[in-house]
Amino acid sequence: MKRVLGTALLCCLPLGAAMGQDNTGPLVGESKAIVKQFMGSLKGELESAMKSGGPINAIDVCNRVAPAIAEQQSADSGWDVARTSLKLRNPDNAPDDWEKGVLEKFEAQKAAGEPVKPMAYYETVEEDGQKVFRFMKAIPTGEVCLKCHGSDLSPEVAAKLDELYPADEAQGFRIGDIRGAFTLKKPL
Question: pTM of the prediction?
Fold first, then answer.
C-alpha cells in the first residue's frame, strides 16, 4: 500500500510544549494511543514470529503483517497510520518532506544527547488547503532489532532481505539508534 502524504505549513509545537495553550491536546492523546496500540500489536507479532521461527519469520511480519496492522488501524481510527525512516527497507514507506524534517530533528536531538524512547513531535500543517494534524514517534533500535537491522546479519537473513528488499538501506543500526518513526496524520 503506497502512502500519500503532503507538505507542511508553520504551526510548530514540540510534544509537551505549550500544552493547554491550543486545542491539540485531545489529538495528541489520540495519537499516543494509536501509536501505543500499533507498537503493542507489532511487538506481539514480532515476538511470536521470533519464537516460532527466528528472524526469517520476523522479516515476514515486517513485510506482510506490519502494513496490514497499519492499514487496519487507519481504517478503525480515521487516521493515516504508517511507519517511515531515513534508512528505508521498504520504498513504499519513504518519508515525505515533513516526515523527513522531523526525522532529521530527532537525529539532531539524539546527537545532542537526548534519549530516543520518548522522542515525539506534533504539528498542525496545511495540505492542499486543508489543516491536518501530524504526529510522529521515534522508534528506538533494540537488541532484537539487530538480527535484521544490525551490521552482522546471518547469511539466511541477508539472503531473505536481498530477496524481498533489493534496495534495502535499513542495516547497520546499533542499539539506541533511531530505527525510524511511527507517523500519523488526520485532517481537521
Answer: 0.84
Nearest Cα to Cα of residue 3 among 86, 94, 77, 87: 94
Q: Which three cell numbers stand for residue 137?
A: 514517534
Domain boundaries, the chain: 12-187
Q: Are 148 and 157 in contact (CB under 8 A)?
A: yes
Q: What would the pLDDT profile of 127-159 be if each residue is shown by its tens digit?
A: 999 999 999 999 999 988 899 999 999 999 999
In sequence order, what are the beta bridge partners of 133?
Answer: 124, 186
Strands (E), the chain: 12-14, 80-84, 120-127, 130-140, 178-187
Residue 99 to residue 97: CA distance in whole angstroms = 6
φ and ψ at 101, to 5 degrees?
-60, -40
**Residues 13, 121: contact at Cβ < 8 Å?**
no
Q: Which amino acid is at 188?
A: L
